[in-house]
Amino acid sequence: MLRLPQFELAQPRTLDEACALLVEHGEEAQLVAGGTDLVPNMKHELFTPKVVISLAKVAELRGVRQEADGALVLGALTTLEALAQDERVRARAPALAQAAGLVAGPQLRRMGTLGGNVMLDTRCQWYNQTYFWRQALGFCLKKDGSACHVVAGGAKCVAAASNDTAPALLSLDAELVFHGPAGARRIAIDALYSADGIYNKTVRGEILVEVRVPATPAGHRGAYGKLRERGSIDFPLLGIAARLDLSADGTVASAALCAVALQARPLRLKKAAEVLLGTRPGTADFEAALQEAGALAQKQCHPLDNIPGDADYRREMVPVYVRRTLLAAAEGSGPVHHV
Amino acid sequence: MRVLSLHVNGDRVELAAPDHWTLLEVLRYRLGLTGSKQGCDKGDCGACTVLVEGQPVLGCLTLAASCGEKPITTIEGLMPAHLAAGGTGPDPVQAAFDRCGALQCGFCQPGMILSARALLNRNAQPTRPEIRAALSGNLCRCTGYTQIVQAIELAIAESLGVEPCAPAWAPGTNPWKLAAPAEPGA
Amino acid sequence: MSARDVRGPGAPWPEGFRLVGKAQRKIDGLSKAIGAALYTDDLVLANMLHAKILRSPHAHAKIRAIDTRAAQALPGVHAVITGECMPVKYGVIPWTPDENALALDKVRFIGDEVAAVAAVDEDTANAALKLIRVDYEPLRAFLDPEEALRTPEPQIHEQTPEQKLKEHKGNVSKHVRLEFGDVDAALAGADVVVADDYEFHGTTHTPIEPHCALAQFAPDGVLTVWSSTQITHYVQKALAQVLELPEARVRVIQPCLGGAFGGKSDPFALEFVVAKLAMLTGRPVKCLWTREEVFYAHRGRHPMKLAYRTGARRDGKLTAVDAKILIDGGSYSSFGLVTTYYSGQLLTGPYHFPAYRFDSTRVFTNKPPCGPKRGHGSVQPRFAFEVQLDQLAEKLALDPLELRRINFQGENVKTVNGQRVTSNGFLQCLDEVERASQWKARRGKLPRGRGLGVAGSMYITGTNYPVYPNPMPQAGVQLKLDRSGLVTVFTGGNDIGQGSNSIARTIVAEELGLDPADVRVVAADTDLCPVDLGAYSSRVTFMVGNALIDACRKLRVQLVAALAEHWEVDEARIGLGNGRAFERGAARTLTMREAFQLTEARFDTLGATGAYNTPKLGGDYRGGTIGASPAYSFTAHVVEVEVDEETGRITVANCWIAHDCGRALNPMLVAGQMEGSAYMGLAEALMEDHKVNRFGLHAGPSLLDYRIPTAVDTPELHALIVESLDPEGPYGAKEAGEGPLHPSIPAISNAVFDALGIRLRALPFTPAKVLRALREQATAGRGGSSVRPARVASEAEPSC
Fold this sequence. Notes:
The complex is a heterotrimer. By secondary structure, chain B is an alpha+beta fold. Chain B is 35% helix and 13% strand. Chains in contact: A-B, A-C, B-C.
């Protein structure tokens, strides 16, 4: 069996305890919640921490609640399955529920958490492999090596953000509450992700406590589209989250389109989303806007041979998934998925 | 190395294991519960599926030291639980898998059966797409899933007292009825 | 060896069959369902060590030196071995022994085994591997078979200077060219010739159980190896050869096996490694491969580039087939000699064509070695040919199903390459899929994007070519009748999940009138069981089944004689059934327990052996016995697809599988084999790709990246059993475990043509390829039928 490297497991009961452990062990510690990302990565010796700090017993990270203004507060330990099934999330943030419901397969959704998915390590076909495999090609830029095998001569890691919930949360303008040595702070999810594939987050040494999804208006529509080879288990080859807020007359008052599984940073497709403003689903204008949104999105999306799957094909699918996901959002259906 | 106190198949068991051992390794190599299988090393195949607090999860990605007080059910626990609850023989899902030929090499089936058991525990009458979706984290390489789906549908039909859907190879019949064991001396 | 006698497919007793033909539960179903069945890695011996194997990070390199001192010095390490410890070469085919248990002088692919460690636990063994220093001298690596073919040096398998002088083989592993009839004349005289190129990618078996072996070496010199193998007998022979032990001192046991599909039909490094380490350390040693290692071990489907030309008359009757095939063998021979023959020899049914030529070349490349995967050697040519038949039907404006029907070869015929075909239910197979799919009402009439496709195939039920030629039986069994009423069957046959032990129980219970529960089976233990050659070539039910009938009939004679004497009646009045012996037409009965005791008292201890060997078969030419089978199975599929024209994704909605298995001894198990086969074919057509990247590394050696379908990716599979009652099979049975894979793949391509008018000739059928073909179609003008017009014979020879 592929073995885990040796480590000590710490199981703090409170956020403060967890933070203290994180401060104590610094770079030698890794946080784990459901373990569905870190454990295989440790088996691949991508991470060899001395201490693994399990957040599973930290009560402050649990629970889903709705605030008076309609905002949803989702504890970082909320499992992806619980998120997908939660009636409040399905009603208020359908794109997020749909994205959560398409992560990996049934068992992994019961283990994996929202916090873990938000903080998911980037992925690359040259990186998510065993030590033996990576050693055979002299390692790579992201881990243990200096060459990028995706972009010849590339100096910047382009491993892909592969978390389905990220584009959905971007589309919902979610905020993240982190707890660190200096206490709690709240940041916009846009501020979390960076374009560095080695570590595509701006936050280190802090613990994600909860995800806040601001109240969505009555006319809110959302959907998630996921391209993958199989109908289960697989990471996204492309993920598209669509948001349409319809005004009382049924026209699009605000729109958002976000994509994942392209490069290190989940993308906001702003120009593509803007063309939908003022159109009304069901009309020829809307149909034309869908086409234009697809074309604009494709201009902005440049899949690379970072994750398995034909990059040209993934690019070709951008307008298709953009159109279909927007349409699903408008119709209140979704997710857009082949099974 | 630490002493773990686990709650496995209704028993409290104590054992020593290093922190980096997975639940699957502890079950198989410390407790001798080898019914849980290892197929892919890292969470891709579902052969190591066990129920933790009734939910199907992967033993190969679960750290044994993190399981604490949570009740764990492995494939070995189903029949004893069924007997203890007043049933006869194996769990009806296990029996249906046997009667439908769903066990070819059998290697994926402990995990598959536990996923199926968990599904029927939360939904007594799932549709075929719901059955397929619930099993979509358990890879089977032998059956093409057809006889597995038939087994679960047989278990459901019998729990409802209705005839199961006939297979293509025996139209208009219930071939699984014929497969019941003969009474000794009959 | 009376099993050579033809017994016919019926029951020789007037009551007919009680068990045969009805769904029977498997002998090991419940033990598997409750998690009690023991597979190799479930076995633990006291004092056991764990072995790990060091692998080559180079695709092609000389080994200059290996320094194991640091590894040996690591506390907890008990032994470190390298190739020098086991220098004897072996190969599953005795004519091509080109493997070493651990690399001796060079490595030939990334993942090739170089050294091994036995340690107290896996972590220590892994740590020791990292301390072994290997000095490599990299050599030019060949990843492309065409390049390997063009480039004779460096040789992946080096010939001696004398051998080179005689015949420099370059990187050719095997070349076979056979011609039957005058192909060129037949093609020249044909009304129509279709010529095209096809490409089959590599795929692998992916049993869910990774390979595992456990060895114990007793002080009396007996080596016992428990292994997840489907060829216990050949592993015993290979271990004896490589470890230089007498065969009688080597015992191989196959515990419960978690799937194989041909992937466990070679002797593997881990078996030699655990044996050698057990001998060196005096302790039991186990080695369990990681999933990644299983991908390197491979022996999966050979990638092939195939060029076919098929000639036909205007009425659709085939006149000639000409094939040229380039086979990418990977780094070792494995079964490659047979593969090369099979790539041509197994195409000559279910259709008749009077002239046939194939020219197949297998080359070595620096990739994981290919071997036999379900439908060994014949799935790739079958794909090409069945698509070509569809192209022919298109050209002749014939219904593709009808084209297949009019070319049916018939029963009891000799094929163009001299193979004897007896029972042949292919026409009924076509009828069944035509009916079930509503072919006539729907093919060519569904809305754009939806379509139906048909394909047919033939496969062997065992072969009369044993891996090492010998005059002894291919299958032997032994039965022990106990005073308790229990019969124990001892068979060397490997139950790999297909249910051969269950079939053994059914046959013995049927023959001796027993309750199936009173038959137990001990299988695949070389100390206890008579030799059977193993689970490959779809031979077990046919050969072991016939051997069982042979043994049972001997015992039946004794039982009937003793009972007749006891009741003082004519032997013809004695019947056996439902666990009892009875007098026909009278009320007298005894339990079989009583009958056994009576017979034992009359004849002494009861037992019998039984055997089967094939009759003399095959064409009278070199290689003519390869592919010669005592019985051929036949299959037809209709596949229904839906293609999303925007995404290019093909969804198989239904697959109707009609398979002539001779007689379904247990229809539930037959259906399971048919469904599993069709699933595996669909999977390799649409998803799976055993890709090696530009570094020579397997592109994704995991069950995440090598994508086998889940339950939501698998269509509804409809198993339609056809029974032709073979004259030589046990009760008329033929194989069911490999044949039904073949048509899945071309049937999809043909269905996509029906759906969209595009021809997919290169596997796998990825969405990107579908979109590319659609773009080409749009460029060529919509409404056109084929993207590329079929070429005629006068055009250039196919390139590969």
